[in-house]
Amino acid sequence: MMSPPQRRIAHLDMDAFYASVELLRYPELRGLPVVIGGRTEHEPVIQADGSKHFYRLREYAGRGVITTATYEARAAGIFSGMGVMKAAQLAPDAILLPVDFDIYRHYSRLFKAAVAGIAPQIEDSGIDEIYIDLSDLPDDALTLAKRIKQAVKDDTGLSCSIGITPNKLLSKICSDLEKPDGLTILGMSGIPERIWPLSVRKINGIGPKATQKLASLGITTIAELAQADLSLLQTHFGRSYSVWLHEASHGIDQRPVITDAEPKSISRETTFERDLHPRQDRLVLSKAFTALCTQVAEDLKHKGYVGRTISIKLRFEDFHTVTRDFTLAAHTADPVLIRRAAGECLRRVPLKKKLRLLGVKVSALVSIRSARGIEVSPQRELPLVP
Questions:
Q1: Active site members
Q2: Which of 3, 7, 160, 256 is deepest in the core (most CB within 10 A)?
Q3: What is the pLDDT of residues 206-218, one digit of tens each?
Q4: Domain 265-370, second-level architecture
Q5: What pTM was computed for the model?
């Protein structure tokens, strides 16, 4: 009886994806610190002589956060999730560009299609990353990785980094080891040399709080975690998470590459540049609310889903967060019905404080392909302002 082939799992991560897409549009910015996180008013301005004026971080005012940055900006200490104002203190002359999710989604579809032409067993893990099961393909890992990287480059003009190991956990770590345009192939025997010296935060699933607690126990590297007594971990983290920590530190991960995962929900949210008053800023809030419902409806249509449960999320000026949901009689992707249901949710929230964030989510999804026999509401057009 033949034993199954050893698993070869790849993790592909696009390099500084949003920023790299912007550099395709603005190649004159290559080699410069560029930050993605501005608003529409930060679009480059065409001058009378045909040249472009790019906004600088020092010109930004507001409380937006960095979506991503080029490696030159990262060298100045800027990272995703950092406040734009804080980033301006580190690199005031860095170029600031607005976020353009439509073009990022376009390039996301392009790179995933390029990979699928070579290795179709793909788990979609986000707009800029995927897992790929290479186990059943005839070529060796290095040949496959080079083919995939070249296909992505040919179809998008962008570079990616790939890690190939026996499992998803190790591959995600390895795809980050030699960025940008990196390629790391690692077997289990290479864990002590390449993985153990790294910080425990390199393990996907160990967040800031767990990192801090591990540090209080004198555990900062993956090697120290691998050598830690399991009973000590259980005392501080509980049995289930401690067992996972122990296995992860030894590179053990049996999770399969899931190629047919269905989304549980589709959502959109926006953080306002200033806190908005429920009455004084009613028109602005109403337009934003309607726009979110329209965007969610468009996302549902694009991805081929309808949903029944409509939810809203409100975050107030004191960071208190409230959610409400409403379940419709029939599945829908109709922006009018989504807006109406979201409005019903909103009526159940006391609006006595200013708002800093607003979100809309549709869940209880069913793909349109499998919606036969399920009641689906017809779609109508939603006016911009209700």
A1: 129
A2: 160
A3: 999 999 999 999 9
A4: 2-Layer Sandwich (3.30)
A5: 0.74
